[in-house]
Specification:
The complex is a heterotetramer of chains A (253), B (483), C (121) and D (621).
Chain A lengths: L2 H21 L22 H6 L25 H9 L1 H24 L14 H23 L8 H18 L7 H26 L21 H25 L1
Helix pairs in contact in A: 3-4, 4-7, 4-8, 5-6, 5-8, 6-8, 7-8
Chain C lengths: L1 H26 L3 H22 L24 H32 L13
Chain D lengths: L1 H21 L3 H20 L6 E8 L2 E8 L2 H24 L6 H20 L3 H20 L4 H32 L4 H10 L2 H19 L6 H9 L4 H23 L2 H4 L5 E2 L2 E2 H23 L3 H22 L2 H32 L15 H15 L5 H16 L2 H26 L15 H19 L2 H14 L10 E3 L4 E3 H21 L32 H6 L1 H5 L2 H23 L4 H21 L1
Antiparallel strand pairs in D: 1-2, 3-4, 5-6
Classes of the chains: A mainly alpha (253), B mainly alpha (483), C mainly alpha (121), D mainly alpha (621).
Chain lengths: 253, 483, 121, 621
């Protein structure tokens, strides 16, 4: 082992040790510290307000498929956090992905590569045929995931990723398969505009950016959650298009 | 009064639409970028008097203030947002004369770096701060790569260092959330006193590293010179004029409002002082003019951090004024240097000799900005230098004062070398055609003289911003008051 | 022993992941490996975030036909939402990094970062 | 309004700059007009020592008063500035025809005039500092505009030394401001007297740093030679004549108005003089000696005169430092006289440069026949510089000698005498090599300078003789200054000054000299004339002489004398400063190579290392 690596190991180990110390703190009376593993105290956290859906309204018992017109209509509480309580973060998050897609496109296309890549050739019959079968199924699965984002685990990102995977497989199998750059761009832009547009509409009608302006329905129903489903659909299209775009750029580079 | 969310929302909308604008008309993206930044400035101006009265809190998504994400725009955030959007506006004017390949992507990234930095200074939520830092840095990674050639290397280095920074920051966020149970800055600040000291120490250090990378603190700043050297001029300008200002803001917010403790400020003080003197010493060595400006930026950042972390009101005010000046001056320096570089076809200082008689506007801009940084009377740098020395002596920091002045002398040495080369040496190279930068130079020069002769212009915002930073109680009260 | 493992495998494991990642970034010369190390660190932090919100024997924060009301014990949904964001950001950075690596490899014909020092001093 | 005196030149500067772009002569004409206006309106100000003006400003939470006032001391300096500016501006109307930077010259020159008046009218540190910086910066550009490549380096050294000193000044001033709440000199003096002497002395020494630099006093004199030698030829007279003096003005302010002398009154003394004052006098003496020796070695006429300026500054410092009435009056006299004869010398040299285009003395010779008026001006001025009656230079030196002998400062007196005698050596060198000797073939067709350039030289010759005969004119204002500063006055009449060991009567001496001159003139007119023969018409052991130049001995004129000081001169102070900066640079270089080596992995390591170190620091504390 080289000396430099040894030194690095020591330093990093000391760092890890210091971080580890944070978990072993025994707090004095009145002090607060990190909760022990498995003993997270939700009652003191903002999370409890999200679970009880009483950020803006009074606390009341929420019952699956019964309670309706809650402040956030999603049965999946993580979804209500992602697409409702903290939707501003989510907007930022898809922006990050959007920027990365733009950045990747720039980096790979700015200067023509001097090296020749391996020549693409047709994939095997098995792969080709398999993907022909699996492609629509993947699209369907993706759609299911983002449409049911407020009811079950999943959501816009996951659905978008599955859709992008479908296109990735398609591109792997068929080297002649090409999606028009223009159409990807249009989907990407349109989905983004819809998301920001929803926010601005909320701002105009309700006075606050990204505020929910649709009825929230009954918890657990498919048509519930207000804007969540719309937002998730936009996200899914955007993420799907962006990831496809990234994959496309990387393949074509 | 116009809702301040628009400062982030409109650039977002515009950058999402930018590819479509490009399809409509080739020239549209640069115009849209200019209009958007101008719109942002208008929104800020419309809110000016209200914010000077009392800070504005914007609840996003209609959720009650401390419980979900909210924006907090006090005098300090307003000042920083003005800086950021003003820088972007000036650079957008400059960009009108530039031609970029993939200009839709360039302008959408440019708008997003502005919106990201504005978000950094306006947000009242810890994790949201992280998201905006990431938006800003990813836009910066991509924009850096726009120059091709060596810029990939610069971008990759920044990306890796930035990645490490974001890990540190996320760790800090996790610890804070687990202990406090909230991500709202005001709520964290309110219970910061209860946090176990060891945990507080570790968390604060994690944030120090995470945000220190954006604020260009030594020794986390070695990506800066590479980036400033290789990136296109407008990007160097926005990085040093706007993003580093946002970095300083985030640092100040965390160590004044969130975890106000003298020991952390002392760390910052020493780091800032080291950054200052090291930056100046290295800048003096440089043969490459952009690299020289980059190290000079580092040094200035160090100076600002050191002065602000003295923690007295006068010192904070001096540091903030220096921040404002630095943004104005560095942008002018970068765009003038950009024109000089393209006229000479080289970044080497020796090749710029004699350009003063050929590229008059650029050489004038460079000279005025250099003199501003060096603190010539009647220019804005003089006032801030006076305030800095005064406040650092007031805090009994004799050694720091001497160090600042020593650094100023080194600064004189290397800036004047360039100025002399520009005007008093014979032309050596063939001068190439370059962009016209009269409008930005005139605007920035007016600002330099305006702030130098009548600094009262921003006395009130500075005073309120400093007061806001010093007293974190008012921040907490404003956000949590409704509870 | 089992108790200890249960208590520390998440925190300890995530710290270990961060340690490995950091060590990789500092010592590896291959740019791809550096990016992998970054991804490892990201994973470590994400794991830690989720672990910080874990409540023993509680449900996933989703109301369904089994967990009918919100009076039941749930794990903390906020870290999960944060992790979702942080994963996407990590992916974005990773993708951009890989694109840069492709271009750098084009230019220098090497993946060894210690040989790519066109920018220094 | 005192501000008029400051801001009219500064405003005119920009007008001059713009107009000069259209017409090469416009700038100099405007400069001359503005200076004339200043001189006229300043004369109207004479005797009205009660005029003050102040501005209150609440700047960023600091309450600041800007104070301006006029007193005899500042009035004298303002008048000197305006007067010399008129002459230089007149001179430069013609001489700047081919000057590339003539617009820049006039812009900066007018700003300098305004800021110098600002400096002398300032009654508080901040006003002083602002105008001081303005003057420093503009003169930096002026020096840079010099013709040679060395001008840039010289300006560079100048600005770095000046700026470093000025920042130190600012720091001390702000320190005082924080104690007293005001920048005004009066309250500062009160504070300094009441404060602990050690701290006050430290503060005042720091405050005097920029003045020491500007006055070119050893050991901060290294910028003077190159700056004066390489500045544009029209600026050298101002630089040497006036800007060195503004340093002296600052010293007087520190010594008297900020009560430096009062504070050190009771410290250890040598022959009744506090040791610190003696130290300053000693610095003056060292300055005289080094300046003189280095001047003798110079081959470049402008650099030679520059070193002579350094050594003349030494006299002024000695006189002020010993703080006797005679010493002070002598210094003030010498200050005025040095301005007059040094400007004359520089203008004469500028005329020579204007015609020949070179400053190397061994490239010239025999110009006396081609440029008689220039020669006359130069001759008169060097007679004054060497201190020969009946010129003004003698009187001021005489008064200083009187002061030194009165108190019995042996070493200082020796240095002063050495400087006076040796100055003869160096001023004779240009006289002999430039004006006398053989005319170089390439200078055969040279003509005398145009009328507008002659006028300033003529005026200066007259003034030299005038003050040589009637020093009472100068003593009038000097005694007013002494009275203002609280120094005893010296008895004088229009043409005599009362020294310690007797009185000087210049009228008598002038009459004697005139008589001698007339006798000599008579002898010269009636006695047998020498015959003019051609240079090559001579006998030399059968060899034919073909090369006239080898008969003109101009290079390394004082070689045997130089050899005495070769060792001393080799250890130049400039080298010391250069080694210092080189080491500083090298340390930066080392850091740069070690830290920013382009290794990404190291950069990553730094971040972890910083965390670990800060955590360790936190642990220990």
């Amino acid at each position: 082992m080289k000396f430099r690596n040894f030194l690095a190991l020591i330093i990093v180990a000391v760092f890890a040790f210091i971080i580890f110390q944070a978990f072993t703190i025994v707090p004095a009376a009145g002090e607060i510290t990190i909760n022990k593993f498995g003993q997270a105290d939700l009652s003191n956290r903002t999370a409890s307000r999200y679970i009880n859906k009483n950020v803006n309204s009074d606390s009341k018992k929420v019952i699956y498929k019964e309670s309706s017109n809650l402040e956030s209509g999603s049965a999946n509480i993580v979804t209500s956090v992602v697409a409702n309580y903290r939707s501003f973060d989510t907007l930022g998050e898809i922006t990050v992905l959007f920027l990365a897609a733009a950045g990747i496109a720039i980096v790979l296309n700015l200067e023509k590569s001097e090296k020749s890549r391996f020549a693409a050739k047709e994939a095997s019959l098995i792969l080709n045929t398999g993907i022909k079968i699996i492609f629509p199924l993947l699209l369907l699965a993706g759609a299911y995931i983002f449409i049911h984002g407020h009811l079950s685990p999943g959501g816009g990102f996951q659905g978008g990723a599955v859709i992008a995977t479908a296109f990735l497989l398609k591109m792997l199998a068929d080297y002649k398969f090409e999606i028009k750059e223009k159409s990807i761009t249009l989907v990407e832009s349109a989905a983004g505009i819809v998301f920001v547009g929803l926010g601005l509409y909320g701002l105009i009608t309700r006075g606050s950016f990204l505020e929910n302006f649709l009825a929230t329905g009954t918890v657990g129903e498919l048509f519930s959650g207000g804007t969540i489903a719309v937002i998730y659909t936009a996200i899914a299209f955007k993420v799907g298009a962006e990831l496809t775009n990234i994959v496309k750029s990387l393949i074509e580079a | 009064m116009v809702n301040l969310t628009l400062i982030i929302a409109i650039p977002l909308l515009m950058s999402f639409t930018m590819p479509i604008f490009k399809m409509l008309n080739q020239k549209l993206p640069k115009v849209i970028a200019l209009l958007t930044t101008a719109f942002n400035l208008l929104v800020l101006t419309a809110n000016f008097s209200q914010i000077m009265d009392s800070a504005i809190i914007i609840e996003l998504g209609g959720w009650q203030a401390p419980l979900a994400i909210n924006l907090y725009v006090g005098p300090l955030a307003l000042l920083a947002a003005f800086l950021i959007n003003g820088s972007a506006f000036i650079l957008s004017i400059y960009n009108l004369t530039q031609d970029y390949k993939f200009d839709d992507k360039f302008y959408l990234l440019f708008l997003m770096i502005t919106a990201g930095a504005s978000g950094m200074v306006m947000t009242g939520d810890l994790f949201n701060l992280f998201v905006f830092i990431e938006i800003t840095s990813i836009a910066a990674y991509s924009l850096t790569a726009f120059a091709g050639r060596d810029s990939y290397e610069a971008s990759f280095k920044y990306l890796v260092i930035g990645g490490i920074g974001s890990v540190f920051m996320l760790l800090g966020i996790g610890f804070t959330y687990s202990a406090v149970g909230s991500l709202n800055l005001a709520e964290i600040a309110a219970s910061a006193g209860l946090i176990n000291p060891l945990l507080l120490q570790i968390t604060a250090l994690l944030f120090l590293i995470g945000v220190g990378i954006e604020a260009e603190l030594f020794p986390l700043n070695f990506w800066v010179p590479d980036l400033y050297t290789e990136a296109p001029t407008a990007v160097s300008g926005i990085m040093s004029g706007a993003v580093s200002a946002a970095g300083i803001y985030a640092l100040a917010r965390i160590f004044f409002t969130l975890f106000p403790a003298q020991s952390f400020l002392n760390y910052l003080l020493y780091l800032g002082a080291i950054t200052l003197i090291l930056g100046e010493l290295i800048a003096y060595q440089q043969k490459n003019i952009k690299r020289m400006l980059a190290y000079s930026s580092l040094a200035q950042m160090g100076l600002i951090v050191a002065v602000i972390s003295l923690g007295t009101e006068g010192a904070v005010r001096a540091g903030l004024f220096q921040l404002v000046n630095h943004s104005i001056l560095k942008i002018l320096l970068f765009i003038s240097a950009g024109v000089l570089i393209s006229a000479a076809g080289s970044k080497n200082i020796d090749d710029l000799a004699g350009l003063g008689s050929k590229k008059k506007t650029a050489a004038f801009g460079f000279t005025i900005a250099a003199m501003g940084i060096l603190g010539v009377p009647f220019l804005n740098g003089f006032i801030s230098k006076f305030m800095i020395i005064s406040s650092s002596l007031n805090a009994d920091q004799f050694l720091l004062t001497v160090l600042i002045l020593l650094a100023a002398v080194i600064e004189i040495a290397y800036y004047l070398k360039v100025v002399q080369k520009l005007y008093f040496e014979d032309l050596k190279i063939e001068v190439k055609k370059t962009a016209v930068i009269t409008i930005p130079v005139v605007l920035l020069t007016l600002m330099i003289f305006g702030l130098g002769i009548y600094p009262q212009l921003i006395a009130d915002p500075l005073e309120k911003a400093a007061a806001e930073l010093i007293n974190n109680g008012s921040y907490i009260m404003t956000v949590l008051g409704g509870m | 022993m089992l108790n200890f493992l249960e208590e520390w495998s998440f925190f300890g494991g995530s710290i270990l992941l961060i340690l490995i990642g950091l060590y990789g970034v500092i010592t590896r010369k291959n740019m791809i490996k550096i990016l992998i190390s970054l991804a490892l660190m990201d994973t470590g932090v994400n794991l830690m975030l989720v672990a910080l919100g874990y409540v023993k024997a509680a449900n996933a924060p989703i109301l369904n036909s089994v967990v009918q009301t919100n009076t039941a014990a749930f794990v903390d949904p906020i870290p999960q939402a944060l992790v979702l964001t942080s994963i996407v950001i990590g992916t974005a950075v990773l993708g951009l990094g890989l694109a840069l690596v492709i271009k750098i490899y084009d230019k220098f014909s090497t993946l060894d970062i210690s040989k790519i020092r066109g920018l220094k001093w | 309004m005192l501000t008029n005196y400051i801001f009219i030149p500064i405003a005119a500067a920009f007008i001059a700059y713009i107009l000069n772009k259209r017409n090469r002569k416009a700038g100099a004409v405007i400069t001359a007009l503005v200076s004339a206006y200043l001189l006229l309106s300043l004369t109207a100000l004479y005797g009205r020592w009660d005029i003050t003006q102040s501005f209150n400003l609440s700047l960023m939470g600091y309450k600041i008063d800007f104070l301006l006032a006029v007193n005899p001391l500042s009035w004298l300096f303002a008048v000197m500035t305006a007067a010399i500016s008129i002459l230089i501006a007149l001179f430069s109307i013609n001489s700047q025809e081919n000057f590339k930077f003539s617009s820049v010259f006039n812009l900066n020159f007018l700003i300098i005039i305004g800021s110098m008046i600002g400096i002398v009218f300032a009654r508080d540190f901040l006003t002083l500092f602002i105008f001081w910086e303005l003057m420093t910066w503009t003169s930096f550009y002026l020096i840079s505009a010099g013709k040679k490549k060395m001008a840039g380096r010289a300006a560079y050294r100048y600005i770095i030394l000046s700026a470093g000193a000025a920042y130190a000044f600012l720091m001390a001033a702000i320190f005082i401001f924080q104690q007293t709440g005001s920048f005004a000199f009066d309250s500062a003096a009160e504070f300094l007297v009441a404060n602990s002497p050690a701290q006050s002395i430290m503060l005042l020494l720091v405050i005097s740093l920029p003045f020491i630099v500007k006055a070119g006093i050893f050991p901060l004199h290294i910028w003077v030679k190159d700056a004066h030698g390489n500045a544009p030829k029209e600026f050298s007279p101002f630089l040497s004549g006036m800007m060195l003096k503004i340093g002296i003005y600052g010293m007087i302010v520190v010594f008297y108005q900020l009560s430096f002398f009062k504070i050190i009154e009771n410290t250890i003394a040598y022959r009744g003089l506090p040791l610190l004052s003696y130290l300053f006098a000693l610095l003056g003496a060292v300055t005289i000696i080094t300046g003189t020796i280095l001047a003798i070695r110079q081959e470049d006429m402008k650099k030679l005169v520059a070193y002579s300026s350094i050594s003349q500054m030494g006299y002024i410092i000695i006189g002020i430092a010993i703080a006797t009435p005679l010493g002070f009056s002598g210094s003030m006299l010498h200050l005025m006289n040095h301005l007059i004869f040094k400007s004359t010398i520089f203008l004469a040299l500028a005329a020579v440069i204007y015609r020949t285009g070179t400053t190397k003395m061994y490239e010239m010779g025999g110009l006396i026949f081609r440029m008689p008026l220039t020669f006359a001006a130069y001759l008169t001025a060097i007679i004054a510089l060497a201190g020969i009656p009946p010129t003004n230079g003698f009187i001021s030196k005489w008064v200083i000698y009187q002061a030194l002998i009165e108190k019995g400062y042996l070493f200082l007196a020796i240095a002063a005498f050495f400087g006076s005698i040796a100055s003869f050596m160096y001023v004779f060198k240009p006289l002999s090599t430039v004006f006398l000797g053989q005319l170089k073939p390439q200078h055969q067709n040279i003509k005398e300078v145009p009328l507008l350039m002659k006028i300033p030289m003529l005026i200066l010759i007259l003034v030299i003789v005038l003050f040589g005969v009637f020093p009472g004119i100068q003593m009038n204002i000097i005694n007013q200054i002494s009275g203002y500063l609280g120094i005893e006055t010296v008895n004088y009449t229009l043409y005599s000054i009362q020294g310690a060991n007797g009185a000087w009567n210049s009228l008598l001496i002038f009459n004697i000299f005139s008589a001698g001159f007339i006798i000599a003139l008579l002898l010269f007119s009636f006695a047998k004339k020498s015959k003019l023969v051609g240079l090559l018409d001579t006998y030399s052991s059968g060899e034919y002489i073909t090369d006239a130049e080898s008969y003109h001995y101009a290079y390394q004129y004082y070689r045997p004398f130089d050899r005495l000081f070769d060792n001393l001169a080799a250890k130049s102070l400039t080298d010391f400063y250069e080694t210092l900066t080189k080491n500083l640079v090298r340390s930066g270089e080392g850091l740069r190579r070690a830290l920013a080596a382009g290794k990404l992995q190291n950069y990553a390591l730094y971040s972890v290392l910083l965390f670990v170190i800060l955590a360790a620091v936190g642990w220990i504390i």
